[in-house]
Amino acid sequence: MFRTIRRRLFKLLLWFAAASVLLVILFRWVPTPGSMVMVERKIESWIDGKPIDIKRDWVSWDELPDDLKIAVIAAEDQKFAEHWGFDIPAIRKAMAHNERGGSIRGASTLSQQVAKNLFLWSGRNWVRKGLEVWFTGLIELFWPKQRILEVYLNSVEWGNGIFGADAAARHHFGVPAARLSRQQSALLAAVLPNPRQWSPSRPSGYVATRAGWIRRQMNQLGGGGYLQQL
User: Fold this and answer.
1) Terminus of the chain with fewer CB atoms < 10 Å: N or C?
2) Distance (Å, rounded) from C-alpha 182 to C-alpha 74?
């Protein structure tokens, strides 16, 4: 009986591995239709009885402004062009910080965020973390850095029901993503740690200060020239 169970589990794992590889390869070229975060938000709205209108329009790499690309890298993952999905020094620092207690500090790269936003559920258990490692590895193996950033900017949450750069630009600033200014790009990047509570169009003092720091980091990274490394 145990051999049968092991055999069936092994087959199930093989099917899962094959399906996930094919899905990641498909999304290398095909725009992602949505994300698991969007599904979660819909389910939450049904449970709470508060309808939510999901807004999201895919925008190609060439239509996304360089200022927004570099602002997000400056804010979230300054070693994006260098690592293979995981920033090990940042992970070690976060673990040391969290062991001391107090606020929880994360160290997720943009690649990890794409993996969990697209394919996984919210949470911090080891099963989800293991799957995050698996999907991050696949994304880094099969997608170029440009594609990772393109999918991130088209999938990340920027408010209640607001997903992706174009929906965020129109909702918060009344312009398409291609017309975002440098300041608007920095403000959008500044709210990423808490996009459902912070507003880029009505920034608090903290968000405005963080946006200023992001603009300085954009300059230090080399501005649009940094993107050539991708």
Assistant:
1) N
2) 13
CA nearest 67: which of 208, 157, 189?
Answer: 189
Contact criterion met (CB below 8 Å) for 163 and 42: no
- Helix and strand numbers (H, E) in the chain are 10, 0
Cα 77-187-85 angle, rounded to 5 deg = 15
Contact 167, 154 (CB under 8 A): no
Helix (H) or strand (E) holding 143, with range, is none
Helices (H), ranges, 56-180: 66-76, 88-99, 110-119, 126-142, 145-155, 165-173
Judge contact between 40 and 157, C-beta under 8 A. no
Rounded CA-CA distance 128/134 in Å is: 10
Positions in the chain short of pLDDT 50: none
pTM value is 0.92
Q: At what angle do helices 110-119 and 36-48 cross, to 10 degrees?
A: 50
Strand partners, 163: 157
What are the backbone angles phi and psi of residue 123, rounded to the nearest 5°? 140, 170
Q: Report the distance separating Cα 81 and Cα 79, nearest Å.
A: 6
* The predicted structure's pLDDT at residue 205: 97
Query: At a CB cut-off of 8 Å and minimum separation 6, what does 151 contact?
Result: 27, 32, 114, 118, 143
